[in-house]
Amino acid sequence: MDIDSASERGTTHSAPTSRRASITDASGPSAEPRPTTRASASGTRSKRGTKSGSSSTEAIAVPLTPHEAEVESELAAGAQEGMNPKDMYHDLQQRFARLRKQRVRMEDTLNRAEAEISSISIELQAVLDLALETRPDLALEFMVPEGDMVPATCPTDTIMAWEPDQFTQSPGASRSSATESRSPRQTKPKSKPKTSPKAPQSMKEMLASRTAAPGKLRASAPAPPVPEPKRAARPTLESLQAAAKAIEGKDAEHFKAAVMDIDWSTIRVFADLDCHGRGSGAQSSQDVVKALHELAFALRKVPRRSSGKIDRDDWTAGVVEVVHGFTQVDGMKMLLQNRSDLFCSNVIRAVALRRAKAAVESLETLITMAGGWSALNQDAVTNLIDFFMRTLDDRADRVSHVENLFELMVARREISNAAVGMIAMMHARIAEDQASGKVEDFPVSETGIARINRLVQQALDAKVMEHQWDNAQLNAAIVRARVAVHGPRDAVQLARDMLDDNKDALVPEQIKFVMDRLKRDGLATDASEFADFLLTKGLNPGVTGYRAVMEQYLDRADYSGLLARFGSKLDKIPAAARRVDLYEPLIQAMSALGMHDKVKSLHETLLQTPDFALSLPYFETVMRAASDVAGFGPAINRFRDMTYQAKLEPNAAILGLLLSLAHVSGNTDDLAKMNKIITFQVRNNPTVTSDAPELEFARTVVPLLIKCRNAPILQGQEAFLEARQHIDALLAKHGTTVLGVREWAAFLDAAAHAIPQDPRRLNQEARRVHALVIEQLHCSNAAMTDRKYLGALMLALARANAPHVVFALWDKYVAAPLDPAALWLGARYTIPPPVGIVDPLWITADPVDRVPPMPETAAAMAEAVGRARDVFRLRALSNMAWATPAVASEKGMTRLPLNSSVVTALVEAFVLCGDTGARNLMVDLARFRKISLKGERIEQMLVRLAQEQFPTALHLLNDPDVVTALGVAKGL
Fold first, then answer.
1. Do 848 and 557 contact (CB within 8 A), yes or no?
2. Where is this region: Disordered (predicted)?
């Protein structure tokens, strides 16, 4: 009766005796003997019920353990004190559960100990058998230890079923029951008394028992009971065939199971024939020999162990068992000497593929049986070299074994290309360790390079190679050693010589190694030149090589050249080899050239590419490109792509960019959304801190810079001074490189709007910022081709009364030349050169690609033209603004991008130059081109210019068409 069932029936036990009965009913043996079984792998037992009709006190069959006696005494004390039976029941239930857990743990420990004892007994039995076979005279000197030693006459199955407790006094019937439940075989009934243990035998008696005639038993010692087999084992022949079949089917589990089924000691290669030449085992022996051959041949197809696999997986364990089993087969020595090419070569190959260290001793025994090292063929020696190189941990042993095997190949003039390559790579690693100071056990004269050179000469003398660059792995080793000893530049020159002589001299992995080393050492120019060389040879420079060449294009700001060379070439790279690093330069080039639709299309394609790993730098590039199009909206969409689809956490740079865009948008909902995102990331993302410089700039400086643009003059100047103080604090705290090109562009734009009345100070601010960008950030070309930075710099210089510098910047960096023979109403004219000397600070001497005109640069150029009163350049800009696509294509002219800022700047330039073209610009463009006008701003500008005595401004204010256009723009 269980405790639970008793409680369900409402039964209460008032006496300690009845309470004890319920305990034994749940956990101890019942009054009726019944066989016990293991309930689970953890050692839990099935519950036993009491015999029908018997009282609960009769179920007590075992003496109380100390823990149970303690529980019994406490229950009795509780009953005398008048405790509530319900409390007593709960206390009993908790103690019972704790005792059962302790019992399970003890059983598990005992099971493990018994398994270890059985394993040691088997090993000891094998050692004794071997000792008696080799030295029978020692039999009288060995005695079986008392108590713990398993008798030597017991076979293996008996040892596995041996009960170590039979020589010790059992603590009680419960221990006997536990022992029975742990035994995997059918045991004797409990009612049968145990036999007394025998006296320990001497080795002489054991030897006599083994040499007795078959069928006879010794009178002195009864034969041990033959245990039942653990499972129905397959015959040896069937197991051999199953193992070979499992290798063919790439089934590691069945291969190991089949190999473990084989009883190698029963295999006889040659049948025992009688005097008449007949024998019942002749046919079966031939079948077994055939199965051995098939298994040896199948071993060649054992899969190679990957670097992440553990050493004792199913494949490796099976191979170790096969190698050990071959050494136990009777007649295997003669079979090996006849067919050593089949057995040794294939077995060595399997051991090398699995890197099975546990098979080394058995493998050496097998090679000795085959006739020694000299009996191995070239394939076997090559596999042995591979095996020793991969498995021997000691460097001296590894080099000694490998070089001895290679000398054997040299002596027989059977050098293999694979062996030469592997040994050369070993010496290359020695050279690397020597260069780094990790190796001191080799003399200086025997450097890795010297050993490789000697190896090359031996291979050439043996006619293995016709030319010194014919072995790709050897070439890779030479390059690695040269990189370690002489540096990557010398290795690159050597690699060039190799590839000039043989296009296939280097494998892609070695090319990648050279590229990575060049990148690690900061030799970007050398990496780019080597990648260019590889591309001219039609070879793949790898991701690092492609990126090195692309970065050279970006440094020169040659965006059109980058797209022309690599825009379509990346599609030819296999999808599995593509990396997101290759697409970042493409997106930067497309964004710089204003190809925003292509950027969006490429990004959506990459998002839909399965298993394509995107990165934070990639999303930072994409978000910056999206912000150039429409600001916060597209950028936040790319942020969702990053967090939801790519599953990437943002960094501080991305969050700072989004916060700045939210401030620029002026939408309070966008700003609140970004503040929530930043708060969440600061709390949950360890890489984002609240005091990150990107977040500080976006949180404190950006609102002030926006105020400089939109606030009145005095308030704008105060905001600019405050922003300048915050920036100086950031530079002092985080260094001069903390701000990027876009941040300085925003500062220059704010300065141009905040202090236009102080040209001298504005020029000083522009010079200071530009010098810092050129000298500290080392990105002059990238800065001068950035639409935001170039536009802000040109605007600041235009308002600082330096229009000639603006004209020089336009001619140098903008791909919209003002034609010297420009057309104006059908008449040709010549644009005079700008007046003034341009400081070399503003113009970089490096060749740089021109970028197409953007709204920022067009507006700055128009303002500079107006301030310089340059009518000719104004007419050239007007031609580009008015040109239709057909006219621009016919005249070879670049069209000027138009928006409200560009139109406002052109209107002001027309008024300053005294030209009436502003009327057509405002009326016709707004009517036909649907260009939005900033009506209020244009009207204020015209009023200001009219007060400054510009007659064209007064004429435009009195023009009814202009008044109507401005009224429509203002929404009147």
1. yes
2. 1-69, 166-233
